[in-house]
Amino acid sequence: MHPAIHPIVILAVAGLLWGAPRVAFAVDAAERLIEIQTLYQEAAVESMHAQDKTDPHLEWTAKRKATPEDEERAAQALRTIRRAVGQYKDYRVALNKGYRPFQPSVPRPYYHFTKKLNRFKAPLEFDLSQPTTLLYRKADRDFELIGAMYTMSKEAGEQGLDAVIPLSVARWHAHVNVCVPPKGVTDWARFGIRGLIKTEAECTKADGWFLPQLFGWMLTVFPFEDAPEKIWAH
C-alpha cells in the first residue's frame, strides 16, 4: 500500500494532466476541501454526542446480537487500542507525533487532537494502532487522555466495519445529508452537520454543495473505562 497522498495534491496534479479548464476546476475543488476542514473537526466533536438515532444527519450501523466470537474479537481489538492510545497519556507526546488540538482555547467538555495524516490514511489502510483523533479532558492546566476516535472509508460497508470491531459490540456512525454552504457563508443554523437543510433539493436551492455522506464512518472509544457499554459508547 502506497502512503496516502493529500487529496489537494491529487486534484492539482490531475488538473495539470487534464488541461487548463480542468486546472481551474481542480483548484476550486481544492479550495472547497480546505473550507470543509472545519466541518470535519465539528463532525468529530459532534461524534462525542452522537446519541440521537433519529437525527436526519446521522446514519448508524445496524444493531446486532453479540456472539462469543464477537466478544473475543472485541477484546483483542481493545487490547490493541489500549496499547496504541496509552502512549499518549502525556499530551505532549501526542503533539510530538503530529496530533494537533482543535480550538484548544474554546471551553468544551472534551478536546480533540487530530492527526491529519492518519485521517487520510485510514480509508486506504485502516490500522487500530493509529487513531485519527485523541480525546482529552481539561484537568487544571493539563490534559487528561480519555479516549480516541477512528474513521473508516465511506465504502467500507457494514461487512468491512464488522471485520475491524464487531458491530454487535460497537456501532459506527456517519454524518449524512450535509449541505456545505456557498463561499463566504457561515450560517451553520442552516448548513453543516446540524443544519436545517437536509435534502439535496433544499441545498441546491440555497446554492450549497450537497454531500450524501460527509467523510467516512466514525467510532469513538473510551478504552480506559471499566464496562463495555462505557468503552464502546454509542
Structural description of this entry:
This protein is an alpha+beta fold. The protein is built from nine helices and seven strands; from the N terminus they run H-H-H-E-H-H-E-E-H-E-E-H-E-H-E-H. The chain has helices at residues 7-18, 20-35, 37-47, 68-86, 91-96, 116-121, 157-164, 200-205, 228-231, and strands at 58-60, 100-101, 111-114, 133-139, 142-152, 173-180, 209-221. A hairpin with a 2-residue loop joins strand 4 and strand 5. Helix 1 (7-18) packs antiparallel against helix 2 (20-35). Residues 1-27 have low confidence and may be disordered.
Q: How are the SSEs ordered, and which strands pair?
A:
Elements: H1 7-18, H2 20-35, H3 37-47, E1 58-60, H4 68-86, H5 91-96, E2 100-101, E3 111-114, H6 116-121, E4 133-139, E5 142-152, H7 157-164, E6 173-180, H8 200-205, E7 209-221, H9 228-231
Antiparallel strand pairs: 1-6, 2-3, 3-4, 4-5, 5-7, 6-7
- Overall spatial form: globular
- Continuous helix count: 9
**Total number of distinct structural domains:** 1
State mean pLDDT (0 to 100 scale). 79
Largest sheet: 7 strands, antiparallel
Work out the strand percent. Answer: 15-25%
* Low-confidence blocks of residues: 1-27
Major sheet: arrangement of strands:
1-6-7-5-4-3-2
How helix-rich are the residues, as a percent range? 25-40%
**How many β-strand stretches?**
7
| N-end to C-end Cα span | 31 Å
Structural class by helix and strand composition: alpha+beta
Task: Round the Cα radius of gyration to an integer and report it.
Answer: 19 Å
Question: What is the string of helix and strand elements?
Answer: HHHEHHEEHEEHEHEH
